[in-house]
């Protein structure tokens, strides 16, 4: 049946549907019309009943008042003449006065109207009865249905014309376009899908236009789908050829079986591996057509993959190929599934015989390397790119305490190398062990800190070398050794070097002291000598004599101070005497008070009578150095300098490890200066350490104090806080016995009249010496040149009874002069004077033949005593 026939059937069905719908609509409209007519009749009946009742009410009242019954009945009959009233009656007190018409009967409804009949008599209403008017609904329905036929015919004609019009409009606006669309879609072809569907009409866009647009959209999609399908088919062909080319060109073998294990494809690679052509392999049953020895190991993998339907990788499976050669093969077995059903197997194969043989060689080499690693005495640890341990040899295990199970997989830096040698944390990005993992260079560290499992550490030297593979870093090898013995040797060497350096410093100090001692002693010789002479000549002034004695005493302290410096520089010992400390403190405070600013208050608290074995000059030097440092600390703000001397009995715990329990004196020097931080307190007794600026100090003061205290078997402690001042405590052990009291210089002199040859290169010393000797009664001939003195002696060797010569002189020393003189007169007594000389000692002087060895500066009492002793011994 063609599309036109289909279109006519649709139009006929549409026409019949319209007619049926029209009939139903006509019946419905007619019924509605009848209902509304009935409602109109009801309204008219109510209106008529009310009008008649109202119009007849007064007439009937007058008639009833007149008692005219016949007239009342006539009035009721007149009322019943109305088509809307079927029955009328008047009731009074339950009785019927009059009635007219036929009372409605049957199931139909009755409409009733009642009117009260009251007569007004003497301003009062007299009830005469009630007028009842009744109308039947059946009569009203009959009147309403009397015009239904005409209404039905009228409505049917209207509906029929409407149906015909709708059919014509639908046929023109819809059916003919639908027929055109259907015909167009029936004639469409794949190659014509590019021509859009168009309706030739002038109406505005509507549902048909939407339908046409949808059809055109569907047509475009169909065209696109057809193009995609065509391209897909072409791509499938291309890919098929591409993959076949790939499969045929790859070295690995590929073959495919169906669900019955029959091989239906094998590439050239498979033929080469099996030693057969692909044509002979294709069509063979994998499990039945090959020798058992060929498939005995492979068969289990194949059946497992077929049973589990899961991909399986087989590795290093032995296969005996067609030529009988034993090979090792690896590959995948991949089941092909469709909706869970097994279709066959894709199998790959790779001949790894060469790789297997290489792995066996590598394994043998690895075993050799393991033996080497186990035999190595140094610790060897392997790292991956993340710094985690991959292997550790026994030596490393022994040194760190970590077993391979405990350390492999852990980060080496975090376990064994997380701290620097100074104890501070070692950041990972600075760790030399990790640096080769980013760089390509070996890192070597001579001194590092490595930690053991037990929490202890040891010094180590290590190298970290990157491991390379194909030009890429894959890890690092760390080789380390315990350098504890080397560190101990280095520390011992450092101690020896420190001791040597200290000895060299002391030697330099001794050289410096010796260099100045000669000149300084010459100066002291002048001071003491002229003071001596002044004391001998002063008369009549007690104050002047006292002042000169103080100058003399200070010169003696200076003399002893030079001896102390020389002894310290040579690490020698000074003569110590039992004495009390308080007189020395008083003397030092008298000297110190004149040199300190008035902003510094000096307080002394001397409450000790203990006797110590000490060198007075050393004690004086301790006080002067400690007080001078205290004054320096208070030079800007001023303060209080307090010196306290107490007896103390030391018990454990001792204030210093070098002290012993027992009776001591405690000398405290306390200031209120700026104080010192703890790190400075650790170094204050080091030689040449000073916090003073250039020109203010040498750094030797406290080291000299420390040396003097230590030589007295004592100890010195310090307590200080920044801003809180400083306290030095000197502890000296007490001894039993009486203290020696220093006496005033003895002014009684030994005189003589012998002839003396005096030689010294210092003119002022020559003049002072001549004056002293002549004061003692001697005849003196002086020379300030040793060469001139020798010539004078050679000219008159018997002219002199005694030679007094300085040691340090240009061109010829005093010792050399003495040798020359003694070669001429061996019996001549010679006195050698020196401020300081490393080239000659008292022993060397005696060996030469010198009778007396005297240290400068000379005082007249000592000089007179020595001269008389030498001369008197010669005579004896």
Structure description:
- This protein is α+β, with helices and mostly antiparallel strands and 876 residues long.
- Helix content is 48%, strand content 23%.
- The strands form 6 sheets. Strands 6-5-9-8-7 form a 5-stranded antiparallel β-sheet, sandwiched between helices.
- The radius of gyration is 72 Å and the shape is elongated.
- The mean pLDDT is 81.
Chart the SSEs and their pairings.
Layout: H1 3-66, H2 69-80, E1 87-92, E2 95-101, E3 110-121, E4 124-136, H3 137-145, H4 148-187, H5 207-249, E5 253-258, E6 263-266, H6 268-274, H7 278-281, H8 292-295, H9 298-308, E7 312-320, E8 326-338, E9 341-351, H10 353-375, E10 379-383, E11 389-392, H11 394-400, H12 404-407, H13 412-416, E12 443-451, E13 457-469, E14 472-482, H14 484-537, H15 542-569, E15 577-580, H16 582-593, E16 600-607, E17 611-614, H17 616-633, E18 639-650, E19 662-671, H18 678-681, H19 701-711, E20 715-720, E21 726-733, E22 755-759, H20 763-775, E23 779-783, H21 786-795, E24 802-806, H22 814-824, E25 830-834, H23 842-848, E26 852-855, H24 860-875
Q: Would you tell me the overall average pLDDT?
A: 81
Q: What shape does the CA trace take?
A: elongated
In this structure, how is the largest beta sheet organized? Answer: 5 strands, antiparallel
Going across the major beta sheet, what is the strand order?
Answer: 6-5-9-8-7
Count of discrete alpha- or pi-helical segments spanning 4 or more residues: 24
Overall structural class, as computed from helix and strand content, comes to: alpha+beta
**Beta fraction:** 15-25%
Helix proportion range: 40-55%
Counting DSSP E segments of at least 2 residues, the number of strands comes to 26
Low-confidence stretches: none
Whole-angstrom Rg:
72 Å
CA-to-CA gap between the ends? 180 Å
């Amino acid at each position: 049946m063609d599309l036109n026939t289909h279109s006519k059937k649709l139009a006929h069905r549409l026409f019949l549907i319209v007619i049926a719908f029209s009939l139903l609509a006509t019946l419905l409209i007619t019924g509605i019309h009848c209902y509304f007519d009935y409602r109109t009749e009801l309204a008219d009946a109510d209106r008529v009943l009310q009008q008649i009742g109202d119009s007849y009410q007064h007439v009937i009242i007058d008639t009833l008042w007149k008692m005219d019954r016949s007239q009342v009945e006539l009035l009721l009959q007149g009322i019943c003449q109305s088509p809307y009233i079927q029955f009328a009656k008047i009731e009074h007190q339950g009785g019927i006065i009059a009635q007219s018409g036929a009372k409605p009967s049957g199931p139909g409804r009755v409409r009733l109207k009642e009117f009260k009949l009251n007569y007004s008599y003497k301003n009062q209403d007299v009830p005469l009865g009630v007028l009842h008017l009744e109308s039947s609904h059946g009569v009203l329905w009959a009147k309403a249905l009397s015009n239904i036929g005409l209404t039905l015919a009228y409505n049917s004609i209207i509906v029929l014309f409407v149906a015909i019009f709708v059919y014509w409009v639908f046929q023109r606006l819809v059916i003919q376009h639908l027929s055109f669309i259907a015909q167009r879609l029936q004639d469409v072809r794949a190659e014509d899908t590019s021509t859009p569907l168009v309706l030739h009409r002038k109406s505005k866009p509507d549902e048909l236009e939407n339908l046409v647009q949808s059809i055109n959209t569907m047509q475009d999609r169909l065209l696109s789908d057809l193009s995609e399908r065509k391209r897909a088919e072409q791509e499938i062909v291309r890919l098929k050829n591409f993959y076949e080319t790939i499969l045929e060109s790859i070295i690995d073998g590929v073959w495919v079986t169906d669900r019955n294990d029959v091989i239906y494809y094998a590439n050239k690679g498979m033929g080469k591996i099996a030693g057969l052509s692909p044509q002979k392999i294709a069509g063979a049953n994998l499990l039945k057509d090959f020798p058992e020895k060929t498939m005995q190991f492979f068969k289990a993998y194949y059946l497992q993959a077929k049973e589990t339907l899961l991909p399986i990788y087989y590795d290093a499976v032995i296969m005996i190929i067609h030529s009988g050669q034993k090979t090792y093969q690896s590959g995948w077995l991949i089941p092909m599934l469709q909706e869970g059903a097994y279709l066959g197997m894709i199998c790959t194969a790779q001949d790894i015989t060469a790789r297997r043989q290489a792995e066996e060689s590598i394994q043998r080499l690895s075993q050799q390397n393991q033996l080497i690693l186990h035999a190595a005495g140094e610790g060897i640890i392997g790292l991956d790119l993340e710094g985690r341990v991959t292997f550790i040899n026994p030596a490393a295990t022994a040194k760190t305490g970590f077993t391979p199970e405990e350390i492999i997989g852990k980060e080496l830096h975090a376990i064994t190398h997380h701290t620097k040698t100074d104890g501070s944390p070692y950041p990972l990005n600075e760790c030399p062990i990790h640096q080769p993992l980013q760089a390509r260079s070996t890192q070597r560290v001579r001194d590092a800190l490595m930690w053991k499992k037990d929490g202890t550490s040891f010094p180590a030297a290590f190298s970290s070398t990157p491991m390379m593979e194909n030009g890429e870093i894959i890890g690092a090898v760390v080789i380390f050794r315990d350098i504890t013995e080397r560190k101990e040797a280095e520390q011992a060497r450092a101690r020896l070097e420190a001791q040597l350096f200290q000895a060299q410093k002391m030697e330099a100090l001794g050289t410096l002291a010796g260099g100045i001692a000669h000149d300084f002693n010459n100066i002291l010789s002048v001071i003491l000598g002229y003071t001596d002479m002044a004391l001998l000549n002063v008369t009549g002034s007690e104050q002047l004599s006292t002042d000169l004695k103080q100058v003399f005493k200070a010169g003696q302290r200076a003399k002893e101070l030079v001896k102390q410096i020389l002894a310290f520089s040579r690490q020698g010992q000074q003569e110590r005497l039992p004495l009390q400390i308080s007189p020395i403190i008083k003397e030092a405070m008298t000297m110190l008070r004149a040199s300190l600013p008035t902003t510094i208050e000096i307080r002394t608290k001397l409450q000790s009578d203990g006797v110590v074995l000490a060198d007075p000059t050393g004690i004086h030097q301790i006080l002067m150095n400690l007080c001078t440092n205290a004054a320096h600390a208070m030079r800007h703000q001023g303060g209080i300098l307090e010196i306290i001397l107490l007896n103390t009995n030391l018990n454990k715990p001792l204030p210093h490890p070098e002290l012993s329990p027992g009776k001591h004196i405690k000398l405290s020097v306390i200031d209120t200066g700026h104080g010192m931080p703890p790190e400075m307190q650790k170094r204050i007794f080091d030689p040449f350490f000073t916090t003073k600026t250039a020109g203010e100090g040498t750094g030797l003061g406290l080291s000299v104090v420390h040396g003097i205290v230590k030589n007295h078997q004592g100890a010195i402690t310090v307590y200080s806080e920044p801003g809180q001042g400083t306290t030095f405590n000197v502890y000296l052990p007490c001894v039993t016995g009486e203290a020696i009291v220093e006496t005033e210089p003895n002014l009684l002199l030994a005189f003589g009249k012998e002839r003396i040859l005096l030689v010294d290169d210092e003119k002022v010393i020559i003049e002072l010496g001549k004056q002293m000797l002549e004061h003692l009664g001697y005849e003196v001939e002086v020379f300030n040149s040793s060469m001139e003195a020798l010539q004078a002696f050679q000219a008159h060797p018997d002219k002199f009874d005694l030679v007094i010569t300085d040691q340090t002189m240009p061109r010829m020393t005093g010792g050399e002069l003495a040798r020359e003189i003694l070669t001429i007169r061996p019996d001549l007594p010679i006195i050698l004077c020196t401020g300081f000389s490393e080239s000659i000692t008292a022993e060397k002087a005696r060996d030469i033949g010198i009778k007396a060895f005297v240290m400068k500066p000379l005082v007249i009492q000592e000089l007179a005593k020595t001269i008389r002793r030498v001369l008197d011994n010669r005579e004896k």
